[in-house]
Structure formats: structure tokens, C-alpha cells
Amino acid sequence: MIQWFRQSLLRQVFSGYLLFGSVIIGVGLVMNGIVRQQLMREFQASDQALGQAIAVQTDSRLQNARDSLVALAALDPEIFTASAYPAMENAFKAFKAARPDIDRVYWIDQLGHMQVSVPYDIRTLGTDFSEERIFLRASQADTPFINGGSVDLTTFNAVAIIAIPIRDQQNQFVGILATNVLLADFSQPLNLIVNQPSQQAQGLRLSMLDDRGMLIASQERERLLQPIGSEIPGVEAALQGQPTSQLGLDLQQQQWLYSSVPVPSVGWVVIVQRPASAVFQVVNRFSTWLLVVALLFAGGGWLFWLFLVRHMIHPLHHLATSYQLVEPAVNRPTTSHLSVRHDEVGTLARSLQRLDQDISKRLSELQILLETSNAVVGTLDPQTVIDTITHEVQRLVDSQAVVVLVPDDHGALRVLASTGRSKAYDQTVSVQPNDPLSPSATALRQGQPVQMLADSGEYFPASIAHQGFRALLAIPIISHHVGNVVVMVYRTNAQAFDANDLKLLLMFANYATLAWEHAVLYERSDVRLQAVAHENEQLYLAATHEKQTLAAIIDSMRDGLILAGVDDRLLVANPRARTLLALGDGAIDQLSLTEIYQRLRQQTVDQAQYDRGFAQAQTRQPQVWLLETVNDTNTTVFEIHHFHVGDQQQLIGYGLVLRDITHEHEVEQFKTTLLAAVGHELRTPLAAIKGNASTLLQDDIDWPLAEQRHFLTTISSEADRLASMVTNLLDISRFEAGLLPLQRAWYQLDQLIAAGIQRLARPIPRLELDLPTPTPAIFVDAARFEVVIRNLVANGLAYGEGFIQIQARCEQQHLIVQVRDDGPGIANHDLPYVFQRFYRAHHGIQRRSGGTGLGLAICKAFIEAHGGKIWGENDAAGTTIVLRIPIAGNTG
């Protein structure tokens, strides 16, 4: 039975077919499971290694930024005080300029308010961080720490915060020095890895989470700063410092391999994920083929016999007969038991032994070529590529020297890299491209290798022969993008490079060409990227300077400026506008332009008048109306100007200017009141002067001397009254212009009071003086001070019943003088205004006396010109006017 089985290859093959099919399917199933597990472990290891590399790089960048911030904090402890904020800002600017990866650096004081920021924004400067996580954490910490992802409201960039709590020598917390690191810089290396063609084909995704599970780095920019930690399996363990890899489903129910690697110093996590279909692609394909093979075995068994006889046995017999004339060169031990067989397999085995030897030789050569090519293309540095080419060429073929020539700026070929030759000789080599005898120039012109032998009877360069070389080969590396290169290979024996050597070197030259082009283009692109980055930095600095200049101009405006977008929300409000509207730094984000109008309406004295002005302004251009407000004792008038912001094609927002025209309004009122008062007051003296003068000039009456004297006295008195009125107006104008002259000297107080009373138009019925002894001397303008005393006593006589009391006392370096009358007093709501020009109280003057309302205004001007102060008081006995002036003439 066994003999019968051995004599027929057909029976052996058919039986083996059945056994082989069963074994293959069984082994395939086992291998499928093993390969699946192996692939899973390899991808897990690969992904965790990639995640670990990214985590190390991220940790290094964060540590570098933190160390830089620590160095900044250690510069000068005195800089972290409120008085050193300008110096702090200069230090921050230098720090920011030195680190382009820093988005912003700022200082938060011990109360949680941001006081210094580079760059800064008026909207966020002064922001209260006392309830924020960073402040609460820093106030309890002693060392620097890194906070997770957030949006900076000054630059509107996604950032990570690095903060250092600052403490004084008594270990008291004085504030926080913090900087923001751009999260976009963490996404850039992830994008470079993911966008590689090999990774794109596998669907690789990279992301990074902070310690709260927020996405802080990813190629999906729209999902940044979103909480996705619960969506990824294994993240909780990674946040605890344990790397994990496991399969899981995403939101679309697709299976992924998730590998999570912690960034140890900050508690972040690097996530590497790839589709499970990419991981098990080979296994799935193998399973499919295994199923197909099983079906073929099961369904095609009944055809196998005919197919085997017709398509296998006869062809094998023919092949065995054909290869019987080929004798084996070497018997391989592993196949010797087959070569002794007498059937077709034995004949085929002997033939295949010889074929295997040839294939082994070719595979060995290809293996060397592959290793050499990998070594060349494994770098992007041009000089490293050239050095690798020279080294690998020597390893590829039997050679003693290799030289790489490149054209210089004038086209001459010069040595770029060399091994096995004299450096002094290489420095003198200069080959013209049109040299007909140079092998390198000839190879470059013809675009194909050139070989020369010293003993062949043909031309061989003498300079090469003098160095001991007897064979050379010039191989051109043609590049249409970065310039051509020639590789020269030398041998010391006169042995020509055979066809196999040429084939290997030409194949290697193709790889070297690609590597050379990639390296040079990468170097050029890197230089260009650096130039572009510098240009972008200059543009950014210019834009920042323009923005800061514009912000400084807006902030320095004396008028209030408010800008709003087309959606009516406020965008800009300068400090003057914030003061007028009582807006805080953070209130601008919650207000609209309509609400600003409502605030203005609430502040106005007459809301109905404001509504009329607002309605009229909407119907004309420009849109301007007035707003009058009262604060304590001051009345303020604003001119409101509403305008549109944009060009002829597009409206981009609205603007509002609040201009304080109180002074102009007061000037207009002063002119109107002055004309009315002067016109009224001039009538009486002018009428008296005119009447008395006309009476004296009558020709039909001979007036007695006494009557004439009475008429002339009246004319003189009324003329003095006019002169006094003009003098008062001139003195007030000079005081307001800052031109009021003072002729100061030392005078006794009692003498000044007596001189002032002596010039009164009428005597004082009851006068009471209460002066200190000895009477103090004061440094004043006597004429101005006498006018003050005279006006105050005259007012007391006009309002009261004839009693005047003058008291004086010294307080430190000041003299206090009180003038009291026994009149009805001044209403409390009139007291703040009686010293204003033309203001007349409702008690006394209107009922008992005329006047322009300038007396007390003149007193106020003269006393303030001396550096003093004047005010009024009411009591049960009448009105008291109090003066407070420096004794020695100081203005304190």
C-alpha cells in the first residue's frame, strides 16, 4: 500500500491536498487570532510611543515657559508693587517680545484685580479675578502651576495659563504673575504628524486634553475647549497618570483604538486614536481570503482531480524534463532529501536549487541597496545627505574613494564632500562644465555614467593616477529643481565596474537624487518660512502699535466716545464716557446703545426737554441735542452727537460723542444775564445823571448855589456807582482769566476793617467788633480786602435791621473772619448759589434793594485769589459770611 502510494505523485498530491487544505484552514484560523492580537499590541505600542513623544515635547515646552516666567519673577522683587507698575509693564513687554509663543503676560494684585497686562485692553484691565479658579488656587499655592485651557478675553485666543504666586519677605501673598501660552502652538505639531500621507491613509487622529477633560489641541479647531473626556475610553485612568490603550465606539458608533498617555507635570493627556478597520485591515483581508480558500477547497474538490492531471502533473513532468540538462552547482543541505528523488519533484528540486542560489544573490544585492537607500533618505539636511551618499557608495561597491562634485555660482564643479582623497587636493579641484577630458563634466553633459581605466590604453586623468587610483566611475545625479550633482567612485586596482555594479549604483543614484532634492528644497523652504515668520511678526508689531496708538488717542479724548456695532451692542467706551455714565470696566459687555440713551434720559434735569431734543435730532443731520444734569451743587450741560460709522457701501456701527459744553453754556447765560442786569442797572444812574444835568442846563431858571451843589453831588454819586459796576465786572473777568493783579503787603487786620467800613455809603447803626489781641498782621492786597469787607457789611445792612458783628480768630496759619447780620437769613437751598454771578436770593434783596448780584461773586473772586475760601452759614440770629485766608499769603 505504501509502495503504491509512493509511486504516484498524483495520489501523493491529492492526499496531501486534502490534508494540506485542512491544516491550512486550521492554521489560518489560529494565525488569524494570533496576528490580530499581535497587531493590536504593535499598534498600541506604536500609538503609546507616539503619544509619549508628544507628551515629552509638550511637557518640555510648558516647563520652558514656566522656567522663563520664574526667571521673570526673580528679576526684581520690588517690581511687584503698585508704584512700580510702569517698570513692571516694561519688563512684561521685553518678556513678550522674547517669547513669540506667549500670548499675554499680566499681573493680578492681592485683591484679585488685573493691574498690568501686555498686551492690554481697556475692557479687561482691572478685571476682578478674586472668584476665579486661578486666583483661588494661586492664593493657596507656594510654587508655579499650570492651569488648563481657556479663552483670553483680551486677545480672544485659546490659551493655557502659567501662574506664579508672589509673596513678600514675610511670606505674605502680594499677587499673581501669570502668562498665557497659545494652545494653537500645541495643535501645530499634531497637525504635522496627522497630515503626513502615511498617517492620512490610516485615518490617524491626535488630540490633547487638560486636567478637566477639555480639548486643548486637535486638528478639529471647532471643538477646542469642549469637554470631551467622557467620550474617550481610558481618559480617566490617564488623568490619574496611567497610560491606557483600548477599543471603543465614537459618537457615530464606529470602532476606534484609543491610546491615552499622560503629560505628568501638568496632568494633561495626549490621545492617539485610529480606526479599528485600519488596525485590523490585514487581518480582515486575511480572513476574507481564508474564507475564499475554504470555499474553494469545499466546493472545488470534485474538479481537483481533472485539474491536477491536466494542469499540474503534465506541466511538472515537462519542467522536470527541461531542467534535467542543468547540473546543480551546490547542493543545499535543506533540500538534499528532495534532490535524490526519481520523480518529477526530484528533478524540479535540483533545478530550483540552482535558481534559488541565483535569487539569493540578487536578493542580497537588493537588500544592500534598500539599506543604503534608507540611509540616504533618512535625513533632510543637505550636508548629511551628501556625507551619507559617499559612505553608502563605498559600502555598495568595492571602492577606495568617493567624491561628490556640485556646480558653484560660476558653473564650475567643486568638491562638496570627499572620502579617501587628500583634502588639500580637493580644495584645488575646479572642473569647467565644457571640459572634454573631464569624466565628471562628460557624465554631467551626457546624463549617463562615464568609466575610465588606467591600463586600458585610453585617456586616464594624470592627476587621478598620481594619487594611486587606476579606475574611476562618474555617475551624474540630474535634478531639475536644485541643481545637478556628480558622484565620482575610485578604485586603486585596474578593475572595471561590471554591469551589476553599474546597475546597483544607478538604482542608488535615483534614490540619492530624490533625497538630495528633498533636502535642498526643505532647507530653502525652511529659510523662506523663517523670512515669512519675521515679516508676519513685523506686521503684527505694526498692527499692535497702531491699535495701541488708536486706543491711547481714544482714551485721551476730553469728550466721551462710545462705539456700538450694527447689533446695537457696545464695543468701545473711553474713560471719559465711563465716568459720565458711571460704567464699570465689565459693564460695557452687557449694555446696548438704546440702554445708554435711557441712562442719559434718567440723568437729565428735564426729561421732557430731552425727549423733544432727541426727537428733533432724529430728523436732521448731524444728529445733535443737549443734555443738562445736576450733580450736588454743579450743573453740567452736554452736547450729544450721534453719528454712523462706515463707508458708502456698508454700515459697520454707530457712534456717540458726549461733549461737555458747560463753560460755553455758562458764557452764553452770562452774556444774556449781563446784558439784562447791566441794562437794568444802568438806567437808574443814567436817568439820574441825565435828569440832574438837564435841570442844571435850563436857561429859564437861575438855581441857587445849594441846589446846584445838590444836583452835581447826585451826578457825581451816580457816576461813581457806574464806575464801581464797571470795575466789578472787570475784576471778575480778570479773575476768571487768571490775570487779577494783587499788590500784597503786611497790614493790621483792624486797620483794614476800619478802612473798609469808612468807605460805606451810609453809617452802621450798631457795629460790634470782636478781634484778637494783639491784632494779627496779614499779607494781602489792601484795596481788594477792603472791598470784601465793604461788600459784606453793605449786604448785611441791606438785608438786616442795622446790626453788624465782625469777629476774627487765628487757626494755625489761617485767619477766620465772620461777618454776621440780623436779617431774615438765606434759604438753605440758596446758600450754595449766592456767590455765583447775578444770583439773587429770594429774601431781602428783591424786597428791599436793587443790585446786579455781583457783590458776593466779587468777594469770592478776591478771597480765592489770595488762596482762601468763603462760605455762608444760617443761624437763628441771621446770616453769617465766613472768610478763611492764609496769614502769610500762602495758598495752602
Automatic annotation (TrEMBL):
Protein name: histidine kinase
Reaction(s) the record says it catalyses: ATP + protein L-histidine = ADP + protein N-phospho-L-histidine
Matching SMART domains: GAF, HATPase_c, HisKA
Topology within the bilayer: Multi-pass membrane protein
Chain ranges passing through the membrane: 14-35, 289-308
Molecular-function GO term, any one: kinase activity
EC number in record: 2.7.13.3
Class of the enzyme per the UniProt entry, highest EC level: transferase
Pfam assignment, any one: dCache_1
Ranges where the Histidine kinase domain occurs: 677-889
Subcellular location: Cell membrane
Gene3D superfamilies according to UniProt: 1.10.287.130, 3.30.450.40, 6.10.340.10, Histidine kinase-like ATPase, C-terminal domain (3.30.565.10), PAS domain (3.30.450.20)
Keywords recorded for this protein, A-Z: Cell membrane, Kinase, Membrane, Phosphoprotein, Transferase, Transmembrane, Transmembrane helix, Two-component regulatory system
Lineage: Bacteria, Bacillati, Chloroflexota, Chloroflexia, Herpetosiphonales
